[in-house]
Amino acid sequence: MSEQATIEKQLDRQFGDAILTHQSTKDDVPTLWVEKARAKEVLAHLKNDIDQPYKMLYDLTALDERDREHRDGQPDSQFTVLYHLISFDRNSDVRIKVPLDDKYPHLDSITDVWPASNWYEREVYDMFGVNFDGHPNMRRLLMPKTWEGHPLRKEHPARATEMGQFELPDWKHDREQQAYEFKPEEWGMKRQTEDADFMFLNLGPQHPGTHGVLRMILQLDGEQLVDSVPDVGYHHRGAEKMGERQSWHTYIPYTDRIDYLGGVMNNFPYVLTVEKMLGIEVPDRAKVIRIMMAELFRIASHLVWYGTFAQDVGALSPVFYMFNDRERILKIVEAVCGDRMHPNWFRIGGVAQDLPEGWEKMVQDFVDYMPKRLKEYDSLVMKNKIFQARTVDIGAYDTEEAIEWGITGPGLRATGLEWDWRKKRPYGGYDQFEFDIPTATNGDSYDRGVVRVEEIRQSLRIIQQCIDNMPSGDYKSDHPQATPPRKEQTMQDIETLINHFVNVTWGPRVPAGEAIVSVEASKGVNGYYLVSDDSTRSYRTRIRVPSFPHIQMVPLISRGHTVADLLAILGSVDFVLADLDR
Amino acid sequence: MNSVSYLPFLVYIAGVLIVVGFMVGVTYFLGNRHKDRETDLPYESGIQSTGDARVRFSAKFYLVAMLFVIFDLEVVFIFAWAIAGKDLGWTGYGVVGVFVVILVIGLIYEWRVGALDWISTDRKYIRMKEVQK
Amino acid sequence: MITSAHTVLAALGVLLGVFTIAPGLIWLERRLLAVWQDRYGPNRVGPFGILQVVADMIKIFTKEDWVPPFADKPVFIIAPTIIMLSTLMSFAVVPVGPNIGVIDMNIGLLFFLAMSSMGAYSVVLAGWASNNKYSLLGGMRGASQMISYEVFMGLSLLGVVLMNGSFNLREIVLAQEGMWNVIPQFFGFLIFLLAGLAESHRLPLDVPEAESEIIAGFHSEYSGMKFGMFFVGEYIGVTLVSAMIATLFFGGWLGPWFPPIVWMLIKTFAFICLFILLRASLPRPRYDQLLSYGWKVMLPLAILNLMVTGAIVVATTG
Fold first, then answer.
1. What CATH number should be reported for the domain holding residue A333?
2. Is the ipTM here above 0.90?
3. Taking an 8 Å Cβ-Cβ cutoff, which residues of chain B contact chain A?
4. In Å, what is the CA distance from C192 to each residue of A467, A567, B100, C153?
5. Does residue A369 sit in the same domain as residue A508?
6. A201 assigned to some structural domain
7. What is d(CA A406, CA A400) in angstroms, rounded to the nearest whole number?
């Protein structure tokens, strides 16, 4: 806390008038409003000039403030751009907000301070129509080139019914097709050298190796990559916009579908953030249930990664074994949650139900079964010489680059930095568990694999502790805002009945404020930044996803490798396009 | 087996040609036909191509082809020795030995000059953005 | 007259046999892979799903015969026939039994090598004629891979030729009466096995069509029976390489108790299963790694094998 106060004081001293105000938030992240003209200077200062600098641009997003009623003490602003920075040396965050008072505002790009801000700024432009001066490629990122309007602006319709009937006549079809055509000149790429032509190859969106609808445009010299441009957004579903139309409670199922391999892991940061804003303390049993389910899903997600990674480098069989094992996890998930991939299981204040009878045996069987299989997979995949030849030294980066580009999760730990949100900033009760943070040293494709495989073992350790120490008690909080409220009392007295009725129909009303809670999800750090305007639904739902920065970095780490290596890199990065595009 | 009859061989060739011809031809009559807007575009992951596949392809292919020609021709000479190796005795072995030594020297030379490394793994190249300019 | 009718029938029998085995292999491979991968495989059509082959054949024959308008049409059509022709022609010299086979050629081994190197054309031409970038990449990979491994394939067999002093496959088989060639020519066998795998470009050495990298490689634009011909050609290639391994290194039809042809089939199928097992268990090396491995390891090894064999042969006869 004191350290955070110091940084605020330091900035006040250094920049004086440029700091407009300090805002207090529910998540206690020091939040400073900075004048537009000097925002870039302040950010560069935080990154480069201070002791224990804020090296990682964790998130960059914007907020359409025009419909907001409760903005007590905040400077006038129609659109606010906010930067969320992390310092690993301090283990603390800072949030810089820049008020913009135009209908179609613009401000300085920070791409020359953080190269990673490139995509984030494009996303903000795409979604809000905020222009960044000096950005090398100010064009849409997620929406199609032909899209009209900027979806996250409040005047943009949110429902298909508000947009007229969708039609695809031939002229429109042709226009869309042509919009997809890649023009190297737009990206400053040459078409040929003196003695050879570059081949521009569309790898994806319909490609068996890209794990979904990712499009990479490759500039090839023979088989070697000169450069590449990822084109994303084919899986965009407007999850953040939907957040503004759903009640706090009914948004939970949508979170399942962000990283669709992560299941309840997606519910976790969302409910934690809402609970933080409501001040709900979750009972111990619910905490342990959550951790157990989250770790099961971490294993399930890593198993999918393991199998598909092996398949990307040509091994045909491992994916079948690993999906079989994943099936065992999904059976447990089905027994507990009633659903498999999208369990929609966490609730504001706890979980949906108590664990079913006999859960101990099911989970224990799995925990006993898995280590033997992992050993087998080691010899099948990780110790295979061909596999090593394909992945060692491929797509390597060091810790500094990882932080620079916003890499989190196994990709960060593979570079040797022992950093796990579960340990460094324990959330949801992780401080009560014993486990190690696996790391590796080279940060290449193989090491990312090593870290994930070891994480499976650590997750098994956590699950074992959950089985051995499952606390008794309630699975959901007694807090009046816990949703849906527990039903025991409803038939006895009218107050609880009313409370139940209101809470089920409208859900909780969250007091005005904002917060972000991040969790160590299977692919990296996933966080929900929620803004409430004292209402029964979110004013702004920002989902900070790991796949986004990870894919942004792929062109850098794949440069000079071959097409085959690129697929190995994509496999090792472990991304989900639903997670990237939201 | 003094006189080999070529009749079965000719029949076999005829049979092979008929079967293969049948396979190529019959789908022309059996297969259906369709024509959609994008039927006649080359497949490139569902996106319109930037340029076509007729490029001046910078392949190390040329090098492989040269190596192949060199070594496969040498192998042909060795074949001639191999069939008569027993009869030619140590003299033949010595001659072929000299031949093979020259061949191996050639191989070592190619190895040394890097003709057998198909991808430049130079770390500098891997992160070289200047290629664009 | 009777004998010539007999031999003509035998020749047609070989053709029929090849065309029964090749589609049968599709079924066998799918079932075996399924067993090794903890799943069922085709099991609905007919007993053990064996009629799946028939169903697939009917399907593929009635698929659209599409020739891309942007392709080089004659070459596009010829390319898949080349692989069929070259592998089928190679079978002419394979001695299935003491008296069964299409032709007893005294340069049988050379004929086999000549024919199998034709297969490279199929891949290159298909890749080029398709006028598709993925096909081009696949074609280039295929060309480099297949001609590289061609060299080692020839060299690896020279040890056998030296020992037996003949290119005639029948004589090579008969010479193995006392001891199978695999024992003195173990390295030759290994190199030939790998070269054969590369020649038939099957996983793990399927870089010309590497699915997860370049979609379907050289046959990306092929559909219907023309695609089917690459497919069947690949299986005939596998059968051919297995039969050649059996013939050259494992005594061909020689063996006790059973009739010769049964032994030949058993040995051939054993190697087919080995090919399938390799496919199930290994990842795919990168294209340049495969080439480097060939030139830097296989070639020196093949030369060494040849010279050592030569010295021993000359010394023992000398």
1. 1.10.645.10
2. no
3. 37, 44-51, 53, 55-60, 119-120, 122, 125-129, 131-132
4. 55, 30, 20, 5
5. yes
6. no
7. 10
Q: What domain range includes position A533?
A: 239-558+566-581
- Domain shared by A382 and A522, yes or no: yes
Report how many domains make up chain A. Answer: 2
**CATH number of A70's domain:** 3.30.460.80
Could you tell me which residues come within 8 angstroms of residue A125 by beta carbon, excluding any fewer than 6 positions away?
A131, A132, A135, A138, A139, A140, A141, A150
Interface of A with B (CB under 8 A): 170, 173, 177-178, 180-184, 188-192, 195-207, 215, 217, 221-224, 226-227, 556, 559-562
Residues A258 and A110 in one domain: no
State both tokens at A173: 């079809």
User: Do B51 and A197 count as a contact with CB atoms less than 8 A apart?
Assistant: yes
- Classify residue A408 as left (phi > 0), alpha (psi -120 to 50) or beta: beta
**C-beta atoms surrounding A106 within 10 Å:** 16
Along chain C (318 residues), what's the average pLDDT of each consecutive run of 10 residues? 68 82 85 88 85 87 85 88 88 80 80 85 88 86 83 85 83 82 84 87 78 81 86 88 89 80 87 90 86 86 87 79
Element (H, E) at C218: none
Considering only CB atoms, B12 lies closest to which of C11, C167, C307, namely C11
Is A181 inside a domain boundary?
no
Element (H, E) at A537: none
Categorize the per-residue pLDDT at A168 as very low, low, confident or very high, splitting at 50, 70 and 90.
Answer: confident
Between chains, do B51 and A215 touch, taking CB under 8 Å as contact? Answer: no
Does A441 lie in the same domain as A570? yes
Report how far residue C173's alpha carbon sits from residue C179's, in angstroms, rounded to the nearest whole number.
10
Return the CATH superfamily for domain B7-33+58-119: NADH:ubiquinone/plastoquinone oxidoreductase, chain 3 (1.20.58.1610)
Q: Where is the domain boundary, A101, A117, A133? A: A133
pLDDT higher than 60, residue B2: no
Contact C314 B33 (CB under 8 A): no
Rounded to 10 degrees, the C-alpha dihedral A516/A519/A524/A526 comes to -40
CA-to-CA dists, residue C212 to A203, A378, A390, B59, angstroms: 11, 22, 14, 21
Q: How many CB atoms lie within 10 A of CB C233?
A: 25
